[in-house]
Write a structure and sequence with these properties.
Blueprint lengths: L1 H9 L15 E6 L2 E8 L4 E6 L10 H8 L6 E6 L13 E3 L2 E4 L16 E6 L2 E6 H7 L6 E5 L2 E4 L2 E2 L13 E6 L5 E6 L5 H11 L4 E7 L4 E3 L4 E2 L8 E6 L13
Antiparallel strand pairs: 1-2, 2-13, 3-17, 4-15, 4-17, 5-6, 5-9, 7-8, 7-9, 10-11, 10-14, 12-13, 12-14, 15-16
């Protein structure tokens, strides 16, 4: 009896399997010979916000943002520039930060990438993030989101490439873009070598399977990846998209008109 009791006491209790840590948000990729960095914002793990700078004065670089955040920078999963801006770094298209709109939707005709219609808006509230053409946004979004930034051109529209983008045109630059997949994850991509609009668009359509994807910027494209100790420098930036490790579950929806 004593031996049986001792044996029972000595049996180790089964231990719960330790949860594997989530994969890093940013990783290297290659598409048709061009090196890329692909970062994923997962609504189960991350929140997204867009920042310009204190009192509307743009930071102009990711390093300035990192310094300004101080200890809070430990919550940053990654950050990327995103949205067209003027010489002062101020948005020239739709811009909403923390539920406050500081620039209305821009449907003007003009020259350059931004006006290569259709352009679009990357926006979201809570854990719902979307990319829509500017026309679609204007027609169907009835409440102001928590964040929003307008850029252009669209790369992928309802699963098809932008009709005015060549398959692999002569314009080759460093570029970054964003698309949201059917699972609600936001895919951010920055090229590590010059890339055409067409090739970048095909990567979103064929590899990431995002129904809609939006070009964010070119030449000045920059990434802050704290895990890899990467903070890109270069020409002055405008709006910055900050993806942070999730701290809370559930966020209130903004009710204001867009």
């Amino acid at each position: 009896m004593l031996a049986l009791a001792l044996a029972a006491c000595s049996d180790p209790q089964p231990k719960a399997a330790a949860k594997a840590p989530p994969p890093p948000p940013c990783s290297s990729a290659t598409f048709e010979g061009t090196p890329l960095t692909h970062c994923i914002a997962d609504p189960a793990l991350h929140t997204i916000r867009i920042v310009l700078g204190p009192k509307g004065k743009p930071y102009r670089s990711l390093s300035e943002l990192a310094v300004a955040l101080g200890p809070k920078s430990s919550q940053v999963a990654f950050a990327m520039n995103g949205g067209m801006f003027d010489e002062a770094g101020l948005p020239i298209g739709y811009y909403v930060e923390n539920g406050t709109r500081t620039h209305a939707l821009n449907r003007n005709e003009g020259w350059g990438n931004f006006h290569l219609q259709p352009n679009g808006v990357f926006f979201g509230t809570g854990t719902r993030w979307e990319v829509r053409t500017a026309a679609d946004f204007e027609s169907h979004v009835g409440h102001r989101p928590q964040f929003g930034t307008q850029s252009g051109p669209m790369l992928v529209i309802a699963g098809k490439l932008h009709p005015r983008i060549d398959n692999d045109g002569p314009s080759q630059k460093l570029r970054n873009a964003v698309g949201v997949d059917k699972q609600g994850r936001a895919h951010f991509v920055i090229s590590e070598a010059p890339i055409s609009f067409g090739k970048l668009a095909r990567y979103f359509r064929d590899e990431l399977h995002t129904p809609n994807a939006l070009f964010l910027d070119g030449s000045v494209s920059s990434l802050w990846d704290p895990r890899m100790g990467r903070v890109d420098g270069g020409p002055p930036l405008g709006p910055l998209i900050v993806v942070e490790k999730k701290l809370i579950v559930g966020e209130k929806r903004a009710k204001a008109h867009p």
